[in-house]
Amino acid sequence: MEIIQAKAEVGTVFSQAEARGEGETVRVEIPQTGVSLGEVERYLRQRLGRQTIVSGALRRQGDRLLLTVRASGSPGRTLEGTEAEMPALLQSAAEAVLQDTQPLRMASYLTSEERMEEAEALVRPLLGRGTDKERAQAYLAMSVLLLNSERAREALSAARRAVQLNPSDGASLAFVGASEWILGQHEAALASIASARAAFRRPGGGDGLSQIARATGEPAMLSYARLLTRDHAASVEASEEAAAISARGGDDSGMQSYLWAAAQQSALGRDLPSARRLAADLPRTDATLLVRNFLEMETAAALEDWPRALRASLAIPNNGSPDAAAMDARYLVRNGRVPEAAELAAAMPNDCYPCLIVRGELAARSGDPAAADRWFAEAVRQGPSLPSAHSAWGEVRLARGDLPGAIRMFREAQSRGPRWADPLKFEGDALARQGDHRAALRRYEAAIDRAPRWGAAHLAAGRSLAALRRPREATEAYRRALRLDLSAADRAEASRLASVQSARP
């Protein structure tokens, strides 16, 4: 029998399997953040803590090969196959060693490969074994694979159990927040993210994490928190900080993910030039496809291109996420496809903040203002710290001609999201319809202060300036709007108004 040493080959494949298990992006998106759960999962990755030595031997027995691999602290395993099957044997050997030495890493790898049943079978025995910290890690790994199996509520329960076992761990708290966000429980997510952010700032809050994971934890949590309260500029800044930390640490994947997030957050903040600039140099790969679809959706929505926004939204798998389903329903409503939106809404849970908002918008479009008000009131009750429901309620009231009611809702939104431009601009629209162009102009200027590149806000300011008989300033506002992104209808109007104003003596 011929004996062939296989230590180098098995060691290489072991390293590749381990790296894939640790670094592969898990294919679930946190809606409206542009960040995959693989990025949140980054915080729960544990270092080896000890050197793992892998050795092995390969024997030929007739036309068969027998590959034996051993790792320090684990029994050897022998696998059998033909010479043509050698690559598969090496891969299986690497997986076997990883499973024996680091089962949670192996579970992460299996999850990235969408081998969910194998991952769950590996993790479940670990839930009741070891110290509280070890069990917390197992529950966190279970939460990841449950989310990727579209079992979001079970995933949240597992993440909360991890927090009970290790209350000071920023990773566990971050994953609770991510799970709540995916379920549409945005008020709870805001509190969990704040707790995670505080944990990452404390000594020991990121025990066992890599240096990069600890360093990016706080700005990443800040980015998510600011996004929920619609402070888009601060959200972009925090994502860019996390990207810079990742770049300095040599984590190119993390850097790219955070920059994609910053691009999408820029689009949400009505800054489409910055969104395009950030996205221009980033790779277009299968791994970034979902994030690119989010960016496409938000860019189209900012330009009121509802068919394009709907196509992008429907291209994003919701993975059982009520939050993502609410986005699909919202753009169906905006496209006038009310029956399809109603079918989606009927299956939405009643504890999902964006789901309640879209039900209100659906009821308004269906001609039932009383039902719309009930849905919005419930959304406000479930998200008392959040501005989105009040702003959407204001838009619905504005559309129905209830100007005082719309203004009241927009001001409530401003009190909860003082750096959000949208409710300021929309209040300006309501005031302009009341004929109070002086007050409307103040709101438009405040919106432009928060979103300087929002073309529609400059156009609206120009209309109020013209109504206040300030023609030169109005013309300047129209021209500024034309240099920025506008919907097709707004661009046509801005061109006409600029021409008319310039022709006047």
Q: What does this protein structure show overall?
A:
- It contains 26 helices and six strands.
- The strands form two sheets. Strands 1-4-5-6 form a four-stranded antiparallel β-sheet, covered by helices on one side.
- Helices cover 68% and strands 6% of the residues.
- The radius of gyration is 27 Å and the shape is elongated.
- The protein is mainly alpha-helical and 505 residues long.
- A hairpin with a 4-residue loop joins strand 2 (29-30) and strand 3 (35-36).
- The longest helix is centred in the middle third of the chain and has 18 residues, at 211-228.
- TPR repeats lie at residues 136-169.
- It comes from Brevundimonas denitrificans.
Shape: elongated
Unreliable stretches (pLDDT < 50, length at least 5) are 1-30, 33-53
Going by helix content, strand content and strand pairing, the class is mainly alpha
> DSSP helix count?
26
The major β-sheet equals: 4 strands, antiparallel
Which strand-content bin applies to the residues?
5-15%
CATH topology title of the domain at 313-503: Serine Threonine Protein Phosphatase 5, Tetratricopeptide repeat
| Gyration radius, rounded | 27 Å
Total strands? 6
